[in-house]
Amino acid sequence: MEKRKLKNGELSLLGFGLMRLPRTEASQEIDAKTAGEMVDYAIAQGVTYFDTAYMYHDGKSESFAGAALSRHERTSYKLATKMPLAVLKTRADVERIFNEQLEKCKTEYFDFYLLHNINEDYLRIAESCEVYEQLKKKQEQGLIGHLGFSFHDRPELLKKVVEQYEWEFAQIQLNYLDWELQNAKEQYEILTGRGIPVNVMEPVRGGTLAKLCDASIRIFHEADPKASAASWALRYAASLPGVQVVLSGMSSMDQVRDNVRTMSPLKPLTGAEYEVIEKALAAYRSAASVPCTSCRYCMDCPSGVEIPKNIAVYNNYQIALANKHPMANFIFEMEYRILGEGQHASSCVSCEQCKSRCPQHIDIPRWMDEISKLHENLRSARR
Known about the structure:
Largest sheet: 8 strands, parallel, barrel
Strand content: 5-15%
Structural class: alpha/beta
Helix content: 40-55%
Order of helices and strands: EEEHEHEHEHHEHEHHEHHHEHHHHH
CATH topology of the largest domain: TIM Barrel
Number of strands: 10
Number of helices: 16
Shape: globular
CATH superfamily of the largest domain: NADP-dependent oxidoreductase domain
């Protein structure tokens, strides 16, 4: 198993994310027996990093982690969990939840601890509840090894977060699709430019990059018949300098075995293999609902709409629906929001300046209206 050096030891490059564990068919609860066997196998193969959170699996992931990991020597694994900023109401909630997490995880300390999913709203909550300050005291008491945060927002906010506090690591969504779509490249460069180690989440984009479309799968298979599509995505993230952990939310023993093979040891991508990924990504995009190639001939929009990215978000949503992704709606809303103020499809005024510039002859104003209505319909459904 590929390892990464820490100041006080080492870490497996492959991390086990405990948010997509197998479920029983009858109750849809965590299948503790199967999931426990997956954890045991992972540890036996050298996986040492396990990532859970207060809200995963409807609040039951941490208890599973405690039950599954406590069967092993505490020094044989690193445990990470997160402070759920979304549920904090008062400063006292931080202490209460942290103690609850220790009990559920059956541990006396956390090797890695994160402020969960920092965005503008949750950052204000973190500030008002003095979360960082309280967690730093926990660290001084030996209850936290490394303090960091997870992030699903815009680069501008990321810059503010890393300038406002001192961090030992950060967790971002990074994969070859989101490298441009969600500005993962810029986020990665912000962190590595400041010497902050990167933990990668969603390297396979919730399974999307393991399925893709038939044309993309063929391209990968022709390049390496023995490699899964998921392995290409894992290697993409793991090949980046400054990445210390690549998390995979594994749901089956087959996935654990495949990921372990991919990282034992890691074979960094070659120049030719990066070209294979670009070719497969182009095929994936061409299979989407709107035949946009992101050539950007339509830009700049006088109303400020980020046309290609709006279309990419919509196309990813349609592909997620086709793959029956359980979080398709949530992913669309998150990606649409991340586009930023004024860049959304809803800002389109149908001036049609873009329409005449498009080499693919896409009726862009019509699709901006479609995307805007989809967003409003999903928002209304949540109310």
